[in-house]
C-alpha cells in the first residue's frame, strides 16, 4: 500500500480535486515542475487552472492504465497492450471533446497522450470535406470565393471522394 | 460554438494527416493554407509518413514502350490496389514515342527521371525531379556530361544533413576519357558542380550503362564490377560525397537487380530456372546477406516489383505466353493472377515510393504541371 507521500492532488478549473499516485502524475510535465518548485512543502495540491474536470479524469484514466500496463508487461508486449487500451479509451470520447482534450494535454505537457490525441483527430478528419474541417475546428473562411476556387483548382484531384458527416 | 485550436497544435494534428488530406485542409483558411505550404510543415508530415509505413509497401512504375505507349502509375502491394491519385496523370516530360524515359530512383515521394530523345541523340537528355502526387517538378539545368559521354550512370539521393536532394551523373567511358568524370546536382544550390574522386579512378571499378541502383540509408548503391571482375555494389554517401564498395553475396552481376525490402537492401538473382532473393539483414555488414526466398519460375527473365508477406510476388515477364502485363505469382503453387496493368518488361522502371508534399513550398522553386 502506497503511503500518502506518493499521492498528489490535482485540482480542476471548477475546483474539483483528484487524488492521484505520483507514478501517474509524474507523466504530466507541468505537475512535475510545480512539485519540484515547491519541494519540501507538505502541500501537494496542484491547480490545473484551465483544465476542466472531465479532461482531468480522462488524462488520469489514460496514465493510470499506461503505468499499470507498463508494470504488468515489463517483459515485453507493453506497446501492443497500450495500443489496445488506447483504441478502447478513444472510443468513449466524443469527437468534439477530442479538441478540448488536446488543449488540456498540451497545457499539462504530456507527450505520449498528446501524440495519441493528435493522431485520433487526424484520423477523424482524414476523409472529411473542407466544409466539415472548418466547422469542426471553428475555422473562419477568410478566402474570397475566387481565391478558394483557385486553391481548389490547383489540386483538384485532392477533393474527390470525401464525406461530409 | 467551436473552440479554435492554437496554431502549434493545429500543426501537430495536420502533420499527422496523409499528404492528400493535409493538402485539402489548406482550402479552409489563409492561415492553414500558409501553414501547410511551409517547408517545416512539409518535412514534419514526411517524417510521420515514414514512421507509420513499410517503405516497400508502395511502388512507382514508369513504363515507356514504342508500341504499348507509356504508363505511369503507382501500386500499393499489400493489400494490392492501384493508387488512384497517381494514375493517368500529367507528366512534366514528354512520354510519346520520340522519347525514352528512365526512372533513376524515387525518394520521399520524389521521382527522378531522365528523358532522352530516341533518334539521333544530338538532343541531350534532360533530368526531372518530380512529385507526381502534387504535380510539381524541377527540371535540372543542363549537365555538361550528358551528350559528351556515351556511357553515363545516374543516381538520385537525399542528403539528410543539408536537407538536400542530389542527382549524380558519372561519365564512365574510360576508354575515351581515361578517368571517371562526376557531376552532382544539388536541389539546394540549384546547379551542377564537379566532384573529383581519386579513389574511384584508382579503384579499377567498371560500371555498365544504367546499372541497377537504389538509394537507401543515405547511400546510393549501384551494381558494379571490381578489378578482378567480382560483383560489387558501388556506394556513394550522399552527405559526405564519398565512394566505397560492398560485396554482393555471389558473383553474378548481370543477372542481379537491386531493390529494397522494408528498411533493407535486397537483391534479386535471376539464375533461371531458380530465382533467389537475398537480404542484407544488417546494413553494411557483408556477412549478413541472407537468402530469404528461392523459387522456380517457368520463364527466364522476370522483374520483381514487390513481395507480399504470404510469398506472392508481383512480377512482369515477357516469356510466359508473351505476357505484357503485371501479374502476381505464387511461389508455392505457381498460380498466376493478372492485374490488367499493361507494361513492357524490357521498358519497365520501378522503385519503392511513398506519397509526400515535398516541392510544394515556394522556396523549392518547383513548377506545376
UniProtKB/TrEMBL annotation, chain A:
<dbReference type="InterPro" id="IPR016073">
    <property type="entry name" value="Skp1_comp_POZ"/>
</dbReference>
<comment type="pathway">
    <text>Protein modification; protein ubiquitination.</text>
</comment>
<comment type="similarity">
    <text>Belongs to the SKP1 family.</text>
</comment>
<dbReference type="Pfam" id="PF01466">
    <property type="entry name" value="Skp1"/>
</dbReference>
<feature type="domain" description="SKP1 component dimerisation">
    <location>
        <begin position="113"/>
        <end position="158"/>
    </location>
</feature>
<dbReference type="GO" id="GO:0016567">
    <property type="term" value="P:protein ubiquitination"/>
</dbReference>
<dbReference type="GO" id="GO:0009867">
    <property type="term" value="P:jasmonic acid mediated signaling pathway"/>
</dbReference>
<dbReference type="GO" id="GO:0006511">
    <property type="term" value="P:ubiquitin-dependent protein catabolic process"/>
</dbReference>
<dbReference type="InterPro" id="IPR016072">
    <property type="entry name" value="Skp1_comp_dimer"/>
</dbReference>
<dbReference type="InterPro" id="IPR036296">
    <property type="entry name" value="SKP1-like_dim_sf"/>
</dbReference>
<dbReference type="Pfam" id="PF03931">
    <property type="entry name" value="Skp1_POZ"/>
</dbReference>
<dbReference type="InterPro" id="IPR016897">
    <property type="entry name" value="SKP1"/>
</dbReference>
<comment type="subunit">
    <text>Part of a SCF (SKP1-cullin-F-box) protein ligase complex.</text>
</comment>
<protein>
    <recommendedName>
        <fullName>SKP1-like protein</fullName>
    </recommendedName>
</protein>
<dbReference type="InterPro" id="IPR001232">
    <property type="entry name" value="SKP1-like"/>
</dbReference>
<comment type="function">
    <text>Involved in ubiquitination and subsequent proteasomal degradation of target proteins. Together with CUL1, RBX1 and a F-box protein, it forms a SCF E3 ubiquitin ligase complex. The functional specificity of this complex depends on the type of F-box protein. In the SCF complex, it serves as an adapter that links the F-box protein to CUL1.</text>
</comment>
<dbReference type="InterPro" id="IPR011333">
    <property type="entry name" value="SKP1/BTB/POZ_sf"/>
</dbReference>
<feature type="domain" description="SKP1 component POZ">
    <location>
        <begin position="7"/>
        <end position="67"/>
    </location>
</feature>
<keyword id="KW-0833">Ubl conjugation pathway</keyword>
TrEMBL record, chain B:
<dbReference type="Pfam" id="PF12937">
    <property type="entry name" value="F-box-like"/>
</dbReference>
<dbReference type="InterPro" id="IPR036047">
    <property type="entry name" value="F-box-like_dom_sf"/>
</dbReference>
<protein>
    <recommendedName>
        <fullName>F-box domain-containing protein</fullName>
    </recommendedName>
</protein>
<feature type="domain" description="F-box">
    <location>
        <begin position="1"/>
        <end position="45"/>
    </location>
</feature>
<dbReference type="InterPro" id="IPR001810">
    <property type="entry name" value="F-box_dom"/>
</dbReference>
<dbReference type="InterPro" id="IPR013187">
    <property type="entry name" value="F-box-assoc_dom_typ3"/>
</dbReference>
<dbReference type="InterPro" id="IPR017451">
    <property type="entry name" value="F-box-assoc_interact_dom"/>
</dbReference>
<dbReference type="InterPro" id="IPR050796">
    <property type="entry name" value="SCF_F-box_component"/>
</dbReference>
<dbReference type="Pfam" id="PF08268">
    <property type="entry name" value="FBA_3"/>
</dbReference>
Amino acid at each position: 500500500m502506497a503511503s500518502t507521500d506518493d499521492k498528489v492532488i490535482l485540482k480542476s478549473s471548477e475546483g474539483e480535486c483528484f487524488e492521484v499516485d505520483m507514478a501517474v502524475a509524474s507523466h504530466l510535465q507541468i505537475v512535475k515542475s510545480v512539485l519540484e518548485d515547491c519541494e519540501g512543502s507538505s502541500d501537494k495540491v496542484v491547480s490545473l487552472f484551465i483544465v476542466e474536470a472531465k479532461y482531468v479524469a480522462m488524462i488520469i484514466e489514460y496514465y493510470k492504465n499506461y503505468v499499470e500496463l507498463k508494470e504488468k508487461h515489463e517483459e515485453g508486449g507493453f506497446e501492443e497492450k497500450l495500443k489496445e487500451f488506447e483504441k478502447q479509451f478513444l472510443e468513449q470520447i466524443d469527437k468534439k471533446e477530442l479538441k478540448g482534450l488536446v488543449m488540456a494535454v498540451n497545457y499539462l505537457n504530456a507527450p505520449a497522450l498528446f501524440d495519441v490525441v493528435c493522431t485520433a483527430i487526424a484520423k477523424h478528419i482524414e476523409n472529411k470535406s473542407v466544409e466539415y474541417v472548418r466547422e469542426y475546428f471553428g475555422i473562419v473562411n477568410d478566402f474570397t470565393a475566387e481565391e478558394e476556387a483557385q486553391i481548389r483548382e490547383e489540386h483538384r484531384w485532392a477533393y474527390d471522394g470525401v464525406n461530409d458527416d | 460554438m467551436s473552440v479554435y485550436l492554437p496554431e502549434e497544435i493545429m500543426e501537430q494534428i495536420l502533420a499527422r494527416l496523409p499528404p492528400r488530406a493535409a493538402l485539402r485542409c489548406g482550402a479552409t483558411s489563409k492561415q492553414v493554407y500558409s501553414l501547410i505550404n511551409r517547408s517545416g510543415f512539409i518535412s514534419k508530415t514526411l517524417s510521420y509518413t515514414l514512421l507509420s509505413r513499410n517503405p516497400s509497401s508502395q511502388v512507382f512504375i514508369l513504363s515507356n514502350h514504342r508500341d504499348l505507349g507509356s504508363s505511369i502509375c503507382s501500386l500499393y502491394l499489400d493489400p494490392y490496389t492501384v493508387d488512384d491519385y497517381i494514375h493517368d496523370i500529367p507528366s512534366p516530360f514528354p512520354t510519346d514515342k520520340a522519347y525514352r524515359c528512365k526512372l533513376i530512383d524515387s525518394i520521399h515521394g520524389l521521382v527522378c527521371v531522365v528523358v532522352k530523345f530516341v533518334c539521333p541523340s544530338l538532343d541531350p537528355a534532360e533530368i526531372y525531379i518530380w512529385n507526381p502526387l502534387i504535380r510539381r517538378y524541377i527540371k535540372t539545368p543542363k549537365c555538361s556530361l550528358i551528350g559528351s559521354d556515351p556511357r553515363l550512370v545516374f543516381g538520385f539521393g537525399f542528403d539528410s544533413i543539408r536537407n538536400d536532394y542530389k542527382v549524380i551523373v558519372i561519365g564512365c567511358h574510360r576508354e575515351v576519357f581515361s578517368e571517371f568524370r562526376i557531376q552532382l546536382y544539388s536541389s539546394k544550390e540549384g546547379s551542377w558542380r564537379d566532384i573529383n574522386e581519386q579513389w574511384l579512378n584508382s579503384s579499377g571499378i567498371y560500371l555498365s550503362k544504367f546499372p541497377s541502383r537504389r538509394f537507401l540509408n543515405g547511400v546510393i548503391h549501384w551494381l558494379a564490377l571490381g578489378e578482378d571482375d567480382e560483383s560489387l555494389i558501388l556506394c556513394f554517401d550522399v552527405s559526405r560525397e564519398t565512394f566505397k564498395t560492398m560485396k554482393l553475396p555471389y558473383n553474378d552481376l548481370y543477372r542481379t537487380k537491386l531493390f529494397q525490402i522494408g528498411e533493407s537492401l535486397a537483391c534479386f538473382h535471376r539464375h533461371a530456372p531458380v530465382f533467389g532473393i537475398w537480404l542484407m539483414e544488417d546494413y553494411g555488414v557483408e556477412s549478413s546477406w541472407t537468402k530469404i526466398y528461392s523459387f522456380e519460375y517457368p520463364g527466364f527473365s522476370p522483374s520483381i516489383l514487390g513481395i507480399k508477406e504470404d510469398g506472392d510476388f508481383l512480377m512482369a515477364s515477357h516469356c510466359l505466353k508473351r505476357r505484357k502485363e503485371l501479374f502476381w505469382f505464387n511461389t508455392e503453387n505457381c498460380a498466376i493472377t493478372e492485374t490488367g496493368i499493361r507494361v513492357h518488361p524490357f521498358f519497365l522502371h520501378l522503385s519503392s515510393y511513398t506519397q509526400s508534399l515535398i516541392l510544394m513550398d515556394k522556396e523549392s522553386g518547383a513548377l506545376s504541371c
